[in-house]
Specification:
With 448 residues, this protein is an alpha/beta fold. It is built from 17 helices and 10 strands. The chain has helices at residues 21-27, 30-48, 57-84, 86-90, 93-97, 103-135, 145-167, 173-190, 215-235, 243-259, 293-299, 301-306, 349-361, 371-384, 390-398, 402-420, 423-435, and strands spanning 4-6, 17-19, 209-211, 264-266, 273-275, 282-286, 316-318, 328-330, 341-342, 345-346. The radius of gyration is 31 Å and the shape is elongated.
Length: 448
């Protein structure tokens, strides 16, 4: 590779300064603009979706991955393609072919600055996303393997796009290549294509999952090998050299396809939970969100205070994958982030407490319950944690038919009787109520 030299201004006979040919490409021209574009589009995409990932490390990993693949890869393809066609647009492609440097060196001198600037923009956007999550983190830890693999995917896309730009003499090649890349990646990421889908650079989409340690390396070898093969097939004097990275890519791709669903597994932390020790029932949250335990316990404090001394309750609210155990009920959903929890906080503590109270009542599989049992359920709901929409529902019943107004009156009377009981009497009644909370017939609740 030929190095450019120049003397320091004002010093005759001084030793020449050696300037690498990559320097001019890296500090001027199109490459810095490509990096700025990558940073801008990724930061914009992540900011618009921040409610769905900020505060969860795995959610941040997945959202950065989706943005990098669906937005970053098409941009990298288009940027590489535009840079690849630069000499043709300038009319200097024939002159460049006669340069002293070899074709591979000349290719890399033009292509690498764009690829590196694109990765720099991606790295800054990823760092900002990680910083935003650290500020609102609910537990877990950063997942850095996937972002490193995504960086290799972006470099591979930029180099591949550069090859296309050298081969296709059409100004619309760059935007069309970006559009084609977006469509292919969208189909690969969201379609059902069997084991072949594991060749795509997307994560499996489950925040509770983590990849095996070598999965990012295999994905990098798969995409990087294909890009290297394309570059060498275009630039090398001996085209057979391109078979080496192609074989490496084929081996990595075969490993990804044969491993299949085994590439991802449930994170050990997701199988654990942290719990309160002083509430009835105990409140447990998944260990991935352990810092949410205090706000969740605070939101449910009114409910648990009213249940103090009541018997026949579930042992705990649980928050692990799978169905709850026989003496457990499921904690209202914390995930997906953006619904009950956003940016590390409960979005509506009152509604969350109502959902927890409803999960205690049971009878979720009953198609129909007798009116007396329905009124008892309504009275318990109203006493423990009424729905934020309860007043609106009552107003609708009050404006309804005579039968609906009569039913509203009966429900209000049941609520009043439960609230007016003495503490011991109410605890005894609630203990009897929770003993039959799964029954659908007339014996589903004691008289009220």
């Amino acid at each position: 590779m030929t190095l450019l030299t120049e003397r320091t201004p004002g010093e005759r006979g001084a030793p020449p300064l050696v300037r690498h040919p990559l320097r001019a490409e890296a500090v001027r021209g199109f490459a810095p603009w490509a990096g700025a574009a990558m940073l801008t589009v990724l930061v914009t995409a992540l900011a618009l979706s921040s409610q769905r990932w900020q505060g969860g490390w795995a959610e941040t990993r997945d959202q950065v991955n989706v943005s990098a693949v669906l937005i970053g890869v098409p941009l990298a393809l288009a940027s590489g393609c535009w840079q690849g066609g630069r000499e043709r647009r300038r009319g200097t492609d024939e002159w460049l072919a006669t340069a002293v440097r070899g074709r591979t060196a000349a290719f890399l001198a033009s292509a690498l600055p764009v690829a590196l600037w694109l990765v720099a923009g991606y790295a800054v956007a990823t760092a900002l996303a990680l910083l935003a999550t650290w500020y609102r983190a609910t537990g877990d830890r950063p997942h850095l393997g996937t972002p490193l693999g995504d960086a290799v995917v972006l470099v591979s896309a930029a180099l591949t796009g550069h090859v296309v730009g050298r081969l296709v003499a059409w100004r619309l090649a760059a935007p069309l290549l970006a559009a084609a890349g977006y469509v292919v990646l969208g189909v690969a990421g969201y379609g059902d294509h069997g084991s072949v889908r594991h060749l795509s650079p997307f994560t499996d989409g489950s925040p509770a999952s983590v990849p095996v340690w070598w999965q990012p390396l295999a994905t990098a070898a798969w995409t990087g090998g294909l890009a290297a093969a394309a570059v060498l097939a275009y630039t090398a004097h001996r085209r057979a050299v391109a078979l080496l990275p192609l074989v490496a890519a084929a081996a990595a791709g075969t490993l990804l396809v044969q491993t299949g669903d085994g590439l991802w597994h449930t994170a050990p932390l997701a199988r654990r939970q942290v719990c309160t020790t002083s509430t009835t029932p105990r409140i447990c949250v998944n260990a991935r969100y352990e810092r949410l335990l205090p706000p969740v316990a605070e939101a449910l404090s009114g409910l648990t205070d009213r249940l103090e001394g009541v018997e026949n309750l579930p042992v705990r609210f649980e928050d692990r994958p799978g169905r709850p155990g026989p003496d457990e009920v499921e904690l209202p959903m914390i995930t997906p982030i953006g619904w009950s929890v956003a940016r590390g906080r409960l979005t509506d503590p009152e509604e969350y407490a109502w959902a927890a109270g409803m999960s205690l009542q049971g009878r979720g599989e009953c198609e129909e319950v007798p009116p007396r049992v329905a009124r008892a359920d309504d009275a318990v709901e109203y006493y423990l944690a009424p729905s934020p929409l309860r007043r609106r529902f009552d107003e609708q019943y009050a404006r309804g038919s005579a039968a609906e107004r009569a039913e509203l009156g009966a429900r209000r009377a049941a609520r009043g009787r439960l609230s007016s009981m003495g503490d011991e009497e109410r605890r005894a009644w609630l203990s009897a109520y929770f003993a039959s909370r799964d029954e659908c017939g007339p014996g589903g609740a004691p008289a009220l």
